[in-house]
Write a structure and sequence with these properties.
alpha/beta, 7-stranded mixed sheet, 9 helices, 7 strands
Amino acid sequence: MPLFAEFLLVLVRLRLGLLVGHLADIYSLSKGSVSKIFTTWITMLYHVFKDILIAWPKRQQVKRHLPKSFAKFPRTRVIIDCTEIKIQKPTGPSAQKVTWSNYKSSNTFKLLVGISPTGAFAFVSQLWSGGASDRHITMKSGLIDKLEPNDDCMADRGFNIRDLVTKRRATLNIPPFSKGKQLSTKACTQTQRISAVRIHVERAIQRLKGFKILQGVLPISLASVADQTVTVCAALCNLMKPLVK
């Protein structure tokens, strides 16, 4: 096959989530050839895209392109969240146990993503088992090391990482906790303001999962290139129009 045709095959599989057998019929190839083409290209694209299209933005870049909706949060460097991808049930009992997610009631891979205020992916972690906590993934992913003094990291209430962020002399910006009491008017206003801009990370994840290979159940045969697949999909998202203006 011409190289461009192989490239299109990979893009089709990412976007439409077509099975290997289906692509083999379309391209008149064996299933083994389709798998080899996909594995080779996704690995190559991963190494090309990961540092070019998913780059941690400089503070000056963030400030220059800061959307108007972040006027109340001008120091925001990154908005983070974790998301899960359902996977085919592993055959080994130990693998089944560590990948089980109570939240999804399924076996999953879990990853941490960080977006810039414009909605572009600035950070994509490696995949973890579905049972890993948000704190553990954030601590081990390397994202905290990228924060600089006076940065704001925005997250949901579930991220128990304030101590980690503080060590970098940065600030964790999350909605206030009620602690069993009714929130004050000021706290309610702050919660609404944070939620209004934090929703963009959820929109970015939704855009990422617009690649149907990440919808449904990821075949266990793709486990060896799952990290590469997710990263390439995130990089392709960054080629789309900005989520926030």
